[in-house]
Amino acid sequence: MISGEEERMDAAGIPYMIRPGKGPEGSVLDLLGQLIGSGGADALLLPFRVPSGDSFAWIMFSDVSLLKDAVPFPATMPVQGGRALRSLTRKEKGKLRIIALMRPCEIRAGMELSKLGQVNTENLILASYDCPGAVKLEDYVADPVSCDSAHSEMRSRGEPSGNARSACSTCVDFSMVDADIHFGYFGIKDGGMLVLPGSPAGRALLEGLNLEEGRGLLPQWEAEISRLAERRAATREETFRETAERISGFDGMLATFSNCIGCHNCQSACPICYCRLCYFDSEVSRTDPEALITAAEKRGGISIPPDRIMFHTGRLAHMSLSCVSCGQCSDACPVSIPVADVFSFVAERTQRAFDYKSGRSDGEALPLRRFLKNELDGVHEMVKDAESEASPNE
Predict the structure, then answer these.
(1) Is 228 exposed, middle or buried (0-12, 13-18, 19+ CB in 10 A)?
(2) Which of 52, 72, 263, 308 is a good FRET partner for 363, with 20 to 30 A between their CA atoms?
(3) What is the mean pLDDT of residues 271-297?
(4) 3-state DSSP call for residue 98?
(5) Mean of pLDDT values over 57-68
């Protein structure tokens, strides 16, 4: 697995290609089968459709015959792939060399969790693909057939449609991330596919498969990725502007989260909320009924459950530096609060302040686990000014 900038640069080499014929999904499954057959990996981790047909589950397997039932590009994302990686490798690296095919945001979540000691990447080969977005889970459960069709159209256009998650429409990290192997198909007119190495490990695997060079496809793919990134960046800017207005001040935050029922689904679905026991689920945060009655008497009333704003702002403070804007939180919300819009907006500014990009390779430490002398320029002067303005008795 990727371990730093130098190795990523060293991995840049020959782009390979798969000729048209089987379509993007078939081409990916065929290549993964070759990697298992050649001994490049011991097992694969891929999504499979559940028996009811209205969702997907992560399955790890080594029997190549099962590939025919795998769904490499699922239309929706019921469980974030970063959580699947954590469940496999949190305690130890494991004995199997596993290839995991995931959306870019899922790989980025896995990279963040590796920095937090929640994912061990030593025996993982991470493969990503051009992602057009994911359909809202609620829509998919209601009508899987129509949503599969809509997602197929999204893949052909390379862009989210009307029933895609809001987070997908504003995502600018939808293509090649810090993965070992990337499958690129956006903008390739004849239906072929690029296979790009992203690390020395990925390059070594691809070199053993007798693939054709794909330099000729690279320009059209890069041009399309650039075009799509510009469109999504414009949508992102407009969405962030609207979000900034919506959550402005305490009244704005209160209005945004006024319908929160305190279910904590957003926390449970988030791949970055890594604490084994959340403070807000602990005994410490549980309010005694008599204390609630006393508070209600003093204020003339009290909302139940209490501290909803504190829960969301606490989560923001806790994990905005690692938020990968995958949209799981909004998808899990039963009352349709735009949690992902708020968290993405705050995370973008928090990460910019530290010159940090969540999901970058595990060679870059988390900002709160390293100290840079010139970090947060201007804060020192702000503290000095505040101290000079304070009264002697303060």
Answers:
(1) buried
(2) 72
(3) 71
(4) strand
(5) 94
User: What's the whole-model pTM score?
Assistant: 0.86
Contact status, residue 174 vs residue 228, Cβ threshold 8 Å: yes
| Strand 56-61 relative to strand 43-49, pairing | antiparallel
Helices 249-256 and 308-319 cross at an angle (nearest 10°) of 100
Using an 8 Å Cβ cutoff, are 356 and 376 in contact?
Answer: no
Helix then strand count (H, E) for the chain reads: 16, 8
Domain boundaries, the chain: 5-238, 259-385
Give percent above pLDDT 70 in the chain.
84
Place of tokens 């990290």: 173
What's the mean per-residue pLDDT of the chain? 86
Residues 57/363/370/324 CA torsion (nearest 10 deg):
-30
160-182 mean pLDDT: 92
131, with CB counted inside 10 A (0-12, 13-18, 19+), is: buried
